[in-house]
Design a protein that fits this description.
The protein has helices at residues 11-46, 69-85. It has two domains: 9-46; 48-84, no CATH class. It is mainly α.
Length: 100
């Protein structure tokens, strides 16, 4: 017997299942479309590409690296968020046994 076992649906049940899945996908994309578009735009902003392949100023073949401000802001906010959420107590604590 093959795994997983094949399910044979009647034509009516198959059409009903297909309609249900289609409705669920439409609802999902309607709910998440704006958020997904924002994420895609943020990703494009984060991975900024140089405007020129070869720079002529201040000298030929100068660096054309672009550091997007959104990347700097995102990394700063992410670091602060991680520090607040995942702040762990120190793993090693040392105390002296006496004042001497």
């Amino acid at each position: 017997m093959p795994y997983p076992r094949e399910i044979y649906l009647g034509e009516d049940l198959e059409n009903e299942l297909a309609q249900y899945i289609e409705n669920e996908l439409i609802n999902y994309y309607a709910d998440t479309d704006a958020h997904l578009k924002n994420l895609i735009q943020w990703q494009k902003d984060y991975w900024a590409e140089p405007t020129k392949k070869v720079a002529e100023f201040p000298f030929r073949n100068a660096s054309t690296i672009v550091i997007p401000l959104s990347a700097i802001a995102i990394e700063a906010v992410h670091a602060r968020t991680e520090t607040k959420l995942l702040n762990q107590p120190q793993l090693v604590v040392a105390q002296s046994l006496s004042d001497e």
